[in-house]
Amino acid sequence: MLAFTLFGLGALLVQIAPALTLAVRATNGTGSGNGTIPTFNSPTSGQSSTLHTREIFYVGGQYVEEDGQHRYIDQMYVEQLTPAGGATQPFPLVFFHGGGASGTTWLNTPDGRIGWAAWFLKQGYQVHLIDYTGIARSGRQTKQPARDATSTEAAEAGFTHPEERRLYPQAVLHTQWPGTGKRGDPVFDAFYKSLVGIVTDFERQQYAMRKAGAELLDIIGPSILIAHSLGGYFPWLIADANPTKVRAIVQLEPISPPFEGLEGPEPVPARAYGLTSAAMTFDPPVRDPAVDLVTERVGVDNPSRRFCRLQKEPAKQLINLVDIPVLVVAGEASIHITYDHCTVDFLLQAGVKKTRYLVLADIGIKGNGHFSFLEKNSLDIAEVVNEWMVEQAKEAA
Fold it and tell me: How far apart, in whole angstroms, are the C-alpha atoms of residue 5 and residue 1?
């Protein structure tokens, strides 16, 4: 079985420009090539661009001595985008990309449509795009080389063309990826070329992101955190470290399920604290998760709906998350539809009672795979997410 659920891929091209809409155009330069190149439109191009100001800064990290020399590591790149007329929404957004990707994944879709960053800017939000510590524009972890992301074959089978391999029953429902979803298709190629690899020490990265994310919220104030796939680790940890600065969390198919990995034919231990490998704050306290978090399997396991590993009752509570609204979103044709219910059940059991599980097909949004925010109906999903966030902002007022 191809291992693809661990590394939530994504990302587009790594160009940065004043507007956030990608287009493909022919070039008539002096070179001999007759192909097309991807380029960003200018703000006056007439397409759905959003005028904004752009600031870049870094948070987190520390100096270390390595081989007699001092270097700075574990810093997090932050790109702050503010509508030209100023933000009109009360809470900034912070976007966490999937594994193997970078913050550019939110800028636009690989087939040239407006991305979530630009769309939410148009709704009046200040937007923050980050690169995880240890990869892309965030630098590196000392003596921890980056590892390549998944292969094209695994990306097709898991994300862009799952209907061909049918590794899980719902894969046949996938209809929303633009293009064929296969290597050689220009949309797939644009998607795949941008991947930047992942770190080799996930637990260390989680602690670094916890520190950097908490520092970011101290700078920008109370915010809403939006994450995809592997990026799902970080809102839990940041909210645990700085709960008063997190107004809501949106999880687009977060890394899951609790306590176990289902990437291969047999479950393997993973995420010792349930949602994360790094420590979380429980009540009663957890000193050794192998001892203090007693778990059991719940439910009947089948390919379309996997069993869950949850705490045995009485369950310890995630006391720093109990007041934070959480939206977990799953597409009907993604492998996550087979096990994201486990994340929701874990949260509810741990006292995070403001958790809502949104299966897109239940509200008539059908055919989505793991990268719903890049797929053909991506803005339909953005509208639903925005409606929920507006509701949470009103309740917080």
Answer: 11
